[in-house]
Amino acid sequence: MDSKVQNPGLDELVSRRYQHGFVTDIESDTVAPGHSEDVIRFISRKKEEPEFLLEWRLKAYRHWLTMREPEWARLHYPPIDYQDISYYSAPKKTPGLKSLDEVDPKLLATYEKLGVPLHERARLAGVAVDAVFDSVSVTTTFRDKLAAAGVIFCSFSEAAREHPELVRQYLGTVVPYRDNYFAALNSAMFTDGSFVYIPKGVRCPMELSTYFRINQAKTGQFERTLIIAEEGSHVSYLEGCTAPQRDENQLHAAVVELVALKDATIKYSTVQNWYPGDENGVGGIYNFVTKRGDCRGANSKISWTQVEAGSAITWKYPSCILRGENSVGEFYSVAVTNNLQQADTGTKMIHIGRNTRSTIVSKGIAAGRSQSSYRGLVKVLPTAEGARNFTQCDSLLMGSHSAAHTFPYMEIRHPGAIVEHEATTSKIGDDQLFYCRQRGLSQEDAVNLIVNGFCKQVFRELPMEFAVEAQNLLNVSLEGAVG
Amino acid sequence: MNTVLSPAWRDACQRNRDAIPQLTWLTGLRDSALSLLSSRGLPDSGQEDWRYTNLADYLQRGAAGLIDPDHANDSAAQLQLILDDGRAVSPVAGAHALPAGIELYSLRELGSELRDHAASLLAGKDREGEPPALAALNLALLSDGWYLRSTSTATGTPPALHLRLAGSRAGIAQLRLLVDVAPGSRLNLRIEHQGPAGTLANAVTQIRCGAGSHLDLLRIQDLPADSLLTETTQIELDADATLAATSLDFGGQLVRQDLSIALSGPGAKANIHGAFLVDGRRHVDNHTTVEHRAPDTSSREIFHGLAAGHGRGVFNGRIIVRPGAVRTASALNSRNLLLEKTAEIDTKPELEIYTDDVRCSHGATTGQLDANALFYLRSRGLGPAEARQALITAFLHATLAQIVPEDLSMQVAARLQARLAAMSKAAS
Questions:
Q1: What is the ipTM of this complex?
Q2: Which residues span the domain enclosing A64?
Q3: How far is residue B111's CA from residue B114's CA, in Å, rounded to a whole number?
Q4: What does the pLDDT look like over B295-347, one tens digit per residue?
Q5: Within an 8 Å CB–CB cutoff, is residue B332 touching chain A?
Q6: Which of A147, A160, A322, A303 is nearest to A225 (CA)?
Q7: Is residue A483 part of a domain?
Q8: Which of A230, A286, A378, B327 has the fewest CB atoms within 10 Å, i.e. is most exposed?
């Protein structure tokens, strides 16, 4: 169907510029592009890291050098020159920040534009924010309240300095440095990230939130996040991202590790809105992320919710290792692609323990000339008596040049397991559109309504403030993309 | 990640290039097959399409058999015609028994006027636009093959043909069958893989269904437990052609079937049913691709898998909807029963959709026998083994429903029953 004929003004809506495209002009302390052991030593020294961490980075680096970049994903991009990337960039004048007043006002203005609920807004929103600006944690709020509950929420570098025993005990136990090409690169080069520790029996008193930003031109961002939930604890963690407009592709290879011990629950929500490139596919972030949670204890639960709207390339499979008896893994995802974006995303549910359960709900929306793939693995080992999985992945296509793919892998080795998978692919029904139009809705409102309905199952899982942001994001990304 | 084509294979391909004077018309095709093999190599488990099936042993045994290929030897025994009375005869001896409107030629004897038809089938490409590696290997090494043509447009029951393909115990037999179903014609084709213990075969079947034609295809693989088979089947349907295909795997040690169906003409339809049964240490891997290339095409595919003992069943079903194939309707289902902890099912129903005006769905389930259903049957007086077998039979019988004519369907059902009984006996 030719959308232009049916829907005048469409082009204008589709070609809406990226709203968060700006560059903050702050001096940065950036190392020359290229990777080497010296660069790693430089990063480690800069971060005042303990010796074991440097050793671990170097092991990861040496292993990475022997690895090949994976090719199995349905993604097409020019080869990445890893020697052309600067692996460290930090805003200057950061040491010894005591309060928000000491932060460079330009930085604060940047957050303002992004809508980060720091400062007054943080209090109103009731969110503690550990904002990461080009790899260095600038400021942390609500620390007192969290400290009173015994919760540790700080930048990864800080954790490495102040809680080395915890970092040493858990780092790399969920995503080993040998895991995959991008995880190995991250293990060697990571510059910062977040660290969360919830002690035994504690329910974290607030939603924890981090905004990541990529700012300095030609710098890759290698975040490392580690969340540990001790026995009987509970935490909800939010991660949101926006990035300024760039013409050169930027590489992002993050690693997130979650550890849930007995009876613990971790809820991890993401809204990803990095620069997707322009309508001709120029620029945009390459997002290669390894996220994995380990349900180590009985009755533990890890829930991933993601709204992926940005990035030129998304390669991301938040996973759960269901080791503990009765442990639960969940994955709720909305992936939206437009123009020339490509997303290959999904999850892995590895059932090891008895009576482990997992739910996968994935909604892919592809508009323009974009490609959206769901790739998920459900693996049931012979030990997983009574394992149960339900997977639903639906794709919505907008425009005859978009493409949606589904690759669900199911490897079942226990007869008691019940594994179900369902998938559908379709476009927005003309009858649905007609009905909405006939009730007086404009074309774009009708599309928004239908798309939001399509994604509702996932949005419902997001914390309130994120759900609102996610809906807005979706509307901006897709307005008028259907005719 | 490909394994480089080893010198043994390369030399064999080169030796075979001009070895058969009657097949020199294939030389150009053989050269491109060899160059493709040289660049892509043979399958290995590092490749995404081969992650569950390791051909190392098969290829090693095959390479050992390359030392002294004897072309005159068994090419006649590779394909046999099964007559109505059950006798197996060579296609030459059985020529008089072929139904009206059906012709069957050896590639060596193929008249020059039919060679173009055969050559275009032989060069069949996969979804990536190249012949699959195993089909290329077959082309480079084949010593003969068969070309079957159906031109029968008679109404009533379509003409039926029953063929038997047999592997070899010395090296991998390269089997090739080309089928041309002429526009408007109909054919009921039954292909069985059989052979003595320890046979190896690499079969390639390429079928073109002309506009408005109809093909009923039944494939039965019932090889002895220590046989290894790789099979590539490519079927292309022109406008308004219909295909009803049934694929059954009862035997074999390691079996891999790549079944690709291209709906190239508007209005083409395909109905695909499959069942596989793996017990002992059998490994059966079915990879299917249904490619919608034209508007208003439809496909329905359902595979039933049963794994017991140390068996491993793999199913990978792929639906591709190409740009422009609007108003496509497509459904894919994979249903699996896992009877024991030592067995494994790996299933992956894929969708690749490149246009928006489509209705596509797929589903997959893996589970065990329903405890309630078992209890019900037991309460009606059936023993545990009988109750299990009744449910398993019901599970697999859905596949047999579309086999025509009905007496053939009954005959296959009886064989399945015997096979299940043997399985249950082995288990108890």
A1: 0.87
A2: 3-478
A3: 6
A4: 999 999 999 999 999 999 999 999 999 999 999 999 999 999 999 999 999 99
A5: no
A6: A160
A7: no
A8: B327
